[in-house]
Specification:
Order of helices and strands: EHEEEEHHHHHHHHHEHEEHEEEEEH
Number of domains: 1
Largest sheet: 7 strands, antiparallel
Mean pLDDT: 97
CATH architecture: 3-Layer(aba) Sandwich
CATH topology: Beta-lactamase
Helix content: 25-40%
CATH class: Alpha Beta
CATH superfamily: DD-peptidase/beta-lactamase superfamily
Radius of gyration: 19 Å
């Protein structure tokens, strides 16, 4: 059966459209969307496949899905807006803004450490209650009580879900608004994004349910997967599985403001969120960030040969992933983007990013997850095709 693909693609970017179609033919894509902008203009906006395998409903123009850790970039942008205005200081102690964030070895932790994943709180040692991620105050209290896994600033370990509360609580305390409200008021609303941290109930019919990853006989487990499955005391295991039974297909989780893991959007919204960041910070008369803030936040802030959570080489700016070219490792360990690009992947393979050098922004979302925390062949093939068209 031929997959129906809709939308448009500039003829100069036909290679992206071809790669998108090939994902359905060759890479088990079920439903997905991809969007690119160049010099502020949309050059690809495609969607296709099946939105809901239970009903057979098609993925349409306005379909949205859980984008997992692509949400971290949205959360980081909220903090960067406050930094740009001088309301939040990168090198100020977290406790200056959040008095309860002290003790247990956290006294010298800074805002910068929260953004670059060196804060030392990637996981919780004791079990979280059922539905924990849906309870903002509970997660904040747990972070206040948790001792860091290392001295803050000395190591790097991907803060898989906790990033949403460590950074999000700073946004809440400094702005006086919840993370989701701040994001809507200052980013999603002005830019016209179909992207929410805390999904309104009226949008629920547009959501494509997540289809979990099921490994086949050819699956090669990453070191992260091995640690998750074999060591219940490891950061990897606790960061991934000590989640209070987080269930992204439930209304309660999508309604909650889970800033590290459960934003809902599509490729168009990701590409449009990054569009101003690829073009000096201002688009259509709206300034998202100053050029100086963009230049500073995209610089490498923390790099390591062995991320304490992901167990791979990792690179982060201030709240954003940088290119992680680990192609020599099993699939799911790599995300190769431009040398000066910055963005964020989502578990299973979604991604959004900006490349200011090329004035290029990109978004890709899907409902069927692939293996690994970073990219798989589907997203990487689209990125490679896009860069090939830009040369």
């Amino acid at each position: 059966m031929t997959t129906v693909i809709e939308g448009f693609s500039n003829p100069a970017y036909q290679a992206v459209a071809d790669a998108f179609a090939a994902n359905f033919d060759n890479n088990d894509e079920v439903g997905a969307s991809v969007c690119l902008t160049v010099d502020g203009e949309t050059v690809v906006d495609l969607w296709g496949g099946v939105k809901d395998t239970d009903t057979g409903a098609a993925w349409d123009k306005d379909t949205v899905s859980v984008v997992f850790s692509c949400t971290k970039a949205a959360t980081a942008l909220c903090a960067q807006r406050l930094i740009d205005r001088g309301e939040l200081d990168l090198d100020e102690k977290m406790s200056t803004y959040w008095p309860g964030f002290r003790g247990e070895g956290k006294d010298n932790a800074t805002v910068r450490m929260a953004l670059n994943h060196s804060l030392g709180l990637p996981a919780f040692r004791e079990p979280l209650k059922d539905g924990a991620y849906n309870d903002w105050d509970y997660m904040v209290e747990r972070l206040e009580a948790e001792a860091p896994w290392w001295t803050p600033g000395e190591k790097n370990g991907y803060h898989m879900a906790s990033f949403g509360w460590t950074v999000g609580e700073l946004v809440r305390r400094v702005s006086g608004k919840s993370l989701g409200a701040f994001f809507q008021d200052e980013i999603a609303g002005p830019l016209g994004l179909d992207f929410w941290i805390g999904l309104p109930e009226e949008i629920e019919p547009r959501v494509a349910p997540v289809i979990g990853f099921i490994p086949d006989a050819d699956f090669v487990p990453t070191d992260f997967v091995k640690a998750v499955m074999s060591d219940k005391t490891s950061i990897s295991h606790l960061a991934f599985l000590n989640s209070g039974k987080f269930y992204p297909n439930g209304r309660e989780a999508r309604a909650a403001e889970i800033g590290g893991a459960c934003g809902v959007g599509n490729a168009r919204s990701l590409a449009m969120m990054y569009r101003p960041l690829a073009n000096g910070g201002t688009i259509d008369g709206y300034t998202l960030l100053s050029p100086e803030r963009i230049e500073d936040m995209r610089q490498p802030s923390m790099e390591t040969d062995r991320d304490q959570t992901l167990l791979i080489p990792s690179r982060f700016g201030q709240g954003f992933m940088l290119s992680m070219e680990n192609q020599d490792l099993p699939e799911g360990n790599s995300a190769a983007i431009g040398e000066k690009a910055f963005g964020h992947v989502g578990a299973g393979g979604s991604i959004g990013f900006a490349d200011p050098e090329r004035k290029f922004s990109f978004g890709y979302t899907m409902n069927k997850m692939g293996g690994g925390i970073l990219l798989n062949q589907r997203g990487q093939s689209l990125i490679d095709a896009a860069y090939g068209c830009l040369i």
